Amino acid sequence: MLFSQIIGQQEVKDRFIRSVSEGRIPHAQLLSGPEGVGKLPLAIAYAQYICCEHRGARDACGVCPSCLKYNKLAHPDLHFVFPIIKPAGKQSAVCDDFMGDFRKLVQEKTYFSVDEWYSRISGDAKQGMIYTNESEEIVRKLSMKTYEAEYKVMIVWLPEKLHESAANKLLKILEEPYEKTLFLLVSNAPDAIITTILSRTQRIQVPGLADAEIKQALLDRHDGLTEAEAADVARIAGGSYLRAEMLLEDGNESRVNFDRFVTIMRLAWQVGNRKDHASLKTLRKWADDIAASSVGRERQKKFLQYAQRMVRENFIYNLHQADLNYMTSYESDFSVRFSPFINERNVEQLVAELALAERHIEQNVNAKMVFFDLVLKIIMLLKK
Known about the structure:
Distance between the termini: 52 Å
Helix content: 40-55%
Number of helices: 17
CATH superfamily of the largest domain: P-loop containing nucleotide triphosphate hydrolases
CATH class of the largest domain: Alpha Beta
């Protein structure tokens, strides 16, 4: 992975290049920021630049033996840790069991979501985790001498998914690092990482991409896309190239979440204002359907995050300033009639209840209870 292959983020690239040229490479760094802005590609490109045998002033050479191995994510001194889903019937699993799938996904997409990763490795509804026994693998790999490069590099994608005992073992390594070892942690939710790990890393905030950067990347990578279409998608994407790609895909999850959001809000309004018992039964079925194991907890969380965004967007819609809204055409069409029901009397509570439901799903609370309780609260809040 070369810096030149990554969209935008020039300030972060310059910072990485400067750390190498000055010989001041911190042993543990945390790249944090929104999903889909290039954090994982940046970490890989940084590691490749450090290990490149003929690095230039602005990028790795891309053709030396080290770079060729990095291009395939197969360098013997490059190691990855990422959340996995333990296969049914197996007592234990480690990241190396899934390394082939991980390499393929990074090489195919570069920008991808955790949901895409989970669907690649498993068809069930469980959430991924970095299990306790992974820490033993980390110790084993880092205790060895480097094979070819000056540094051993360990990239931990989504350290917030570390099991508590694995996090504590990782902490010990960060406190007493092996010589010439570099940790690059890549996080979407740094607040979910234990504070003792955070305090031992140098934090690098990776910001959202500029609309112009996303627009140009879309035009470069999608034949037939007009400038107007690319500009519209880039504005709605909110700084995430991943979200921009998702918006372009037919039948993507955003449209599914939109349909779910429309259903719950329309039915909740009907029950609250018409005492429509048939609609109440339909709401109960809606809650049961989204709580089904086939949906999966990660997708349930994504829906709740989407619903929070839509509530905020509809509240902002009432301000009648189009430049402050980031909605697709079909979302805007729905909001014309729906937005008056989101006001200063209920917007904060609606967002709070949706966020609480998201936390409960994260904590493995019974999904049917969570969603039906949420439905009942929405009915009351829409009446305000």
